């Protein structure tokens, strides 16, 4: 499982980091973001790539787990 920490980054950077990581073609990825816009954009991109997205919120930080 690849873990990406995109906290402090604004869009489109979290999506770009995820896109680069997805070249490994793993079944599970985890990405941390710290704003709702990044959460929504990463979720939309992951779903478009065929992944199921589970979101856990802890304060202002969101951990998205993407599974094929």
Order of helices and strands: EHEHEE
Tally of separate domains: 1
What are the low-pLDDT stretches, counting only 5+ consecutive residues below 50? none
- What is the CA-based Rg, rounded? 10 Å
Q: Given this structure, which CATH class is correct?
A: Alpha Beta
Count all strands and give the number: 4
In words, what does this structure look like?
It is a single chain. With 68 residues, the protein is α+β, with helices and mostly antiparallel strands. It has one domain (2-67): Translation Initiation Factor IF3, CATH 3.30.110. It has helices spanning 13-21, 36-48; strands at 2-5, 28-33, 52-58, 61-67. It has a four-stranded mixed beta sheet with strand order 1-2-4-3, covered by helices on one side. The longest helix has 13 residues, at 36-48. The model has no long low-confidence stretch (mean pLDDT 97).
Summarize the structure.
The chain is globular. 32% of the residues lie in helices and 35% in strands. The protein has a four-stranded mixed sheet, with helices on one face.
List its salient traits.
68 residues, 32% helix, Translation Initiation Factor IF3, 2 helices, 4-stranded mixed β-sheet, alpha+beta
SSE layout and pairing:
Blueprint: E1 2-5, H1 13-21, E2 28-33, H2 36-48, E3 52-58, E4 61-67
Parallel strand pairs: 1-2
Antiparallel strand pairs: 2-4, 3-4
């Amino acid at each position: 499982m690849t873990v990406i920490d995109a906290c402090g980054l604004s869009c489109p950077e979290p999506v770009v980091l995820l896109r680069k990581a997805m070249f490994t073609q793993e079944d599970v990825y985890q990405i941390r973001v710290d704003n709702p816009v990044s959460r929504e954009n990463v979720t939309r991109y992951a779903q478009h790539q065929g992944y199921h997205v589970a979101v856990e919120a802890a304060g202002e930080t969101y951990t998205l787990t993407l599974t094929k």
